[in-house]
Structure formats: C-alpha cells, structure tokens
Design a protein that fits this description.
Blueprint: H1 3-27, H2 31-58
Helix pairs in contact: 1-2
C-alpha cells in the first residue's frame, strides 16, 4: 500500500474516532472529551490532506 493511501485511510479513522469522542462528550456533558474529539478530528483532516498532497506529488 502506498504511503499516500495509508495516510488517507488513517486520516479517515482519526476523523471518525474524533466524531465519536465529540458526540460522547456532548451527550455526557464533558467539555474535555468534546475538545479531545475536535482535536482528533482536526488531526485526521490534516493527515488526510497530507495523503492527498503526497498522491499528487507521486505522479
């Protein structure tokens, strides 16, 4: 598997985990968990973008 594809997949997983944490924090009224979820979502978005840039540069 190419590194760019791997980064995109891992980015999607981080985004998904972040959404779950954020929703769980909102349900339990836990602002720390909401913040952790938002941070993880952002990390996933960045990682996914890095994978997209790597894919463009591979060509």
């Amino acid at each position: 598997m190419k590194p760019s594809t791997k980064d995109q997949i891992q980015g999607n997983l981080h985004e998904l985990k972040g959404k779950v944490k954020e929703n769980a924090g909102q349900v339990t009224n836990n602002p720390d968990l909401v913040a952790k979820g938002q941070n993880e979502k952002l990390t996933g978005t960045i990682q996914k973008k890095v994978g997209q840039v790597e894919k463009v540069l591979e060509k």
